[in-house]
Amino acid sequence: MNGAIPAFALPLLAAIGVLAYCIGSIPFGLLLTQFGGAGDIRTIGSGNIGATNVLRTGRRGLAAATLLLDGAKGVFAVMCGFILSPFHTGPAMAVAALFAVVGHCFPVWLKFRGGKGVATGLGAVLALSPLTGLACCAIWLGVARLTRISSAGALAAFAAMPMMLAALNHTGDGPAIPIGGLLIALLVIARHRGNIRRLVDGTEPRIGRKRP
């Protein structure tokens, strides 16, 4: 689809957005730490419900499970968009990807105080464009391993993501997927504004170091 989205498709896209938001808003980090006996993750470290903060509990298994499940939210939401919209699949997948990340960042169940969207965003991008997703994962892991700062890897990956999506977008669905990727990147980077300040100041905690 290269033109404008017809009006009759908008209700379906809106429904896909709501479904993706609900999928993305499942707080796996909070659920896993509570059921795993690690307490309320919102009272630990940064208070974030993502895998990096779960790692600060010292429970690496819970952190790995959080990372995988948060990523799976993004993949599953995009697949739902693909399945539910046999036409206009590019816009549907882009809407699903974006709202899955929005749901993770602003879950209604937690008074809109969620994570930063890294794992869910990467999962969504993997489903939108596997090559882009793999490249972003490689950037994230490479920079994080080099600097031992998770946020530095995430910022580098999401800064590069929109350009790679645009370069590798061969779906024939117009600019929907690159635009969706750009909005996801902007959201994730905005959620890291505190990390950016600490990176500039040289006070950002390194991986494995507990935050006070």
From TrEMBL:
GO terms for cellular component: plasma membrane. Pathway: Lipid metabolism; phospholipid metabolism. It is an enzyme of class 2 (transferase). It catalyses: an acyl phosphate + sn-glycerol 3-phosphate = a 1-acyl-sn-glycero-3-phosphate + phosphate. The chain crosses the membrane at residues 62-84, 91-110, 122-142, 174-190. It comes from the Bacteria. Its EC number is 2.3.1.275. This is Glycerol-3-phosphate acyltransferase. It comes from Gluconacetobacter diazotrophicus (strain ATCC 49037 / DSM 5601 / CCUG 37298 / CIP 103539 / LMG 7603 / PAl5).
